[in-house]
Amino acid sequence: MQPIVEQIKRLAEQQADLAGFYRQAIESIADSFDALAAAVWDCSSLPFHSICQYSRDPARPVHVGISQHHHIEMLQRAADQDEAVRTLVNPDSENQNSVVMICRVQRGRNHDLIEVFFPCDRSEEYYANKKSDLETCCAAVSESLAAKSFSSKPLQSALSRSTTASWSPAQFDEFATNIHGSIDFRETCYHIANESQALLSADRVSVVRFDRKAKTSAVSGLPKINRRANAIVAMERLCNAALPTAQALWYPDPGTEIMPQIQKPLDEYLAAGVTRSLVLVPILEQPPESLESPEQATRKTAPRVIGGLVLENFAGQWQRKTMHEPVTQIGRHAATAYRNAYAHRALFLYPLWRGLGQLTGPRILPRTLLVAALLAVMVAALLLIPSQLVVSGEGRLVPQLRRNVFAQVDGRVETVHVIEGDAVGTGDLLVTLESSELEIGLADIQHEMDLA
Description:
alpha+beta; 5-stranded antiparallel beta sheet; 12 strands; elongated
């Protein structure tokens, strides 16, 4: 490892630009490790944005192979740890699996991340050694940054670099494939925000849904949105004022006067964040081509706005002349994907139909049919098979006609002359009673008779 460490230190002495130093450093690391590709991420602010990338195969750009959401979580996990993080990712069928290692680099008070892609067909000992070597290289990069005082030099704006470079067909094809790959509204908005940010190298891209009021649907680099954040609230106020005009808003745009009802929320939004350049692109319910048809011109109805795309740059400013064409291309594809997802979201009982569609997928369909058949058999059994109902309980037998018999005097039953079930008639002797009061009274009367 000593040769690569010495080479990193020499690069720091030769390079005066931080991005150039990082570019040559990851090239040396990737070539020395026999890795597939490498990238450097700036973690000074959310969302993380790429400083530079390097692929050993020039015909194939760096491809992470996992979703933007999982990649962001992986970067955030690595930014919170001192040691390198290792993850196995599974790209699409055209690429092989790869092992990703991410290690943190100290740059003054900020942190950067170096991400290296390895083939997945190596031994466990190989990956353990490469992880240790990557940590050693990153420590050397941190020492070189501290010695060269690179931390005081601002990074070149990624957006300003992208305006002078053209997109390759593979990059634009990947962008279009990702944003048109789903009709789920949330997933589509998330892909539009992250893929547009990656293709334009913008600092932040937001997707806003507009139904009378603006509501932020996705922000690039953020898996979740805090709707009570000052920046989100201010951006939605700006969209509420600007989107009803159905016109794109560029800031700064010298020579163009902004309406007062838009200027105030724009100033509030700029004051709430660090944005220096902004483009707000409205998304119409119908494509602009259909609005120019003779039928639409005859009706003279204003186009309905259903959403918006907010592109932002934190580090520098760009001119409308240089950014108009790339923003138009990105906005046209993003608007088409957004309209398709928005139309499906508005379908009657769409969540129910979507759930049923998931149950009838090619992989889960046999299990769904099996469960449906079992339920049908159970219902048929309940309806067709008779069952005997047996009820058990305790009771007491009572006569249908019941009469209560009372003695004329109180006493104790001495003899019962009948048994249960005997037939009796009028005047029959039933019970003999013994009464002490009657005996005493009879004795008194007899005593009086004897005295008389």
